[in-house]
Design goal:
- This is Peroxisomal membrane protein PEX14.
- One of its GO terms (biological process) is protein import into peroxisome matrix, docking.
- Pfam families: Pex14_N (PF04695).
- Its main location: membrane.
- It is a single chain.
- By secondary structure, the chain is mainly α.
- The protein has a domain of 77 residues: Winged helix-like DNA-binding domain superfamily/Winged helix DNA-binding domain (Arc Repressor Mutant, subunit A, Orthogonal Bundle), CATH 1.10.10.10.
- Helices cover 78% and strands 0% of the residues.
- Helix 1 crosses helix 4 and helix 7 packs antiparallel against helix 9.
């Protein structure tokens, strides 16, 4: 028979253990036999350890008799190397165990019977006529309720449909009104934009024309002032000539006294006449007021013809300029009011 080397090596390690080496050879051999080792394997393991095997196997009865005292005197081995022990005998059952078992089995049987009677039997057993009649009545009642609910749902659906139709018509009407209003607002906005653009153009035209009109009016005023200055110069020259002519004449003593007493009023009247002519260029062309020198000369003072023609021209130009300025101011007021 072939020797199993791995088992022999394991048995050799077991026999070399210090706690096992103190036991007898028979106990060690009996333990190895319990591990299914053959006699050749046991002998090989003992030879490797250096222990001689027993001369031969002993009878089983004698071996058991020898093992019992050896087990009594042998030292305690570790749990993994103890010999196999026979199983303990089954425990004996008395009347209390049987009573408990009967109670438990009866309880489970009663519970299973109750569950089967309550839940399983109604599913398996055929229904009785009374049960069928009762089920029929309940089914009819359920059908009547279902049909009533269907009719109610149909009525509610019709009402909702009519309400939705009215709401849809109102919404369509409102949308049409909104579209009309939006169209009117859009047209009004366009008209407003056109009017605003026209007002802007008018204002721009006025802004461009006002400086021109002011420059024109300034030029006209400058020319009129120059003309008035020229007239004043000519008037001064005329008065100077008249005064020179009056002083060179030979008046009487009374007249000489009056002539020498009245030069200052004459100068004052001359300045007053000049200021009157500057403020009123369109006055009468002739002066019928007597001169302070009329008593000495016996003649009336008069304005030359070219000065009368210039005065008439200025009086004709002044209303036209005034009307132009008034129209410009009116147009500016209208533009500011529209903006």
């Amino acid at each position: 028979m072939v020797i199993r080397e791995d088992i022999v090596a394991s048995a050799t390690q077991f026999l070399q253990d210090p706690s096992v080496a103190s036991s007898s050879i028979e106990s060690r051999m009996s333990f190895l036999r319990t591990k299914n080792l053959t006699q050749e394997e046991i002998d090989a393991a003992l030879s490797r350890v250096g222990v001689q095997a027993a001369p031969g196997p002993m009878p089983v009865a004698q071996q058991q008799q020898q093992q019992q005292p050896q087990q009594y005197y042998q030292p305690a081995y570790p749990p993994q190397y103890q010999a196999w022990q026979p199983p303990p005998p089954p425990p004996k059952r008395d009347w209390r165990d049987w009573f408990i078992m009967a109670t438990v089995v009866g309880g489970f049987s009663y519970g299973a019977y109750t569950l089967a009677k309550r839940y399983v039997v109604p599913l398996i057993a055929p229904p009785t006529p009374e049960k069928l009649e009762q089920d029929k009545k309940s089914i009819e009642e359920q059908f009547d309720k279902a049909f009533g609910l269907v009719e109610q749902l149909a009525k509610d659906t019709e009402e909702l449909k009519a309400t939705e139709q009215k709401r849809t018509e109102k919404l369509d009407t409102a949308l049409e009104d909104i579209e009309k209003i939006m169209t009117e607002l859009r047209n009004a906005n366009q008209r407003r934009e056109l009017e605003t653009q026209r007002v802007k153009d008018d204002v721009q035209i006025l802004k461009d024309s006002i400086p021109k009109a002011m420059n024109t009016q300034k030029d006209l005023t400058d020319s009129r002032l120059k003309e008035v200055n020229t007239e004043l110069t000519s008037l001064k020259t005329l008065i100077t000539q008249r005064m020179t002519a009056a002083s060179s004449s030979t008046p009487t003593n009374g007249l000489r006294t009056g002539a020498t007493a009245t030069p200052a009023p004459a100068a004052n009247s001359t300045e007053a006449a000049a200021s009157t002519e500057s403020t009123k260029p369109a006055s009468t062309p002739t002066f019928n007021r007597p001169s302070p020198f009329s008593g000495a000369t016996g003649a009336k003072a008069s304005i030359p013809a070219w000065q009368m023609a210039m005065a008439n021209k200025d009086s004709a130009a002044t209303p036209a300029a005034t009307n132009g300025t008034t129209s410009d101011s009116n147009s500016q007021q209208q533009a500011s009011a529209s903006s």
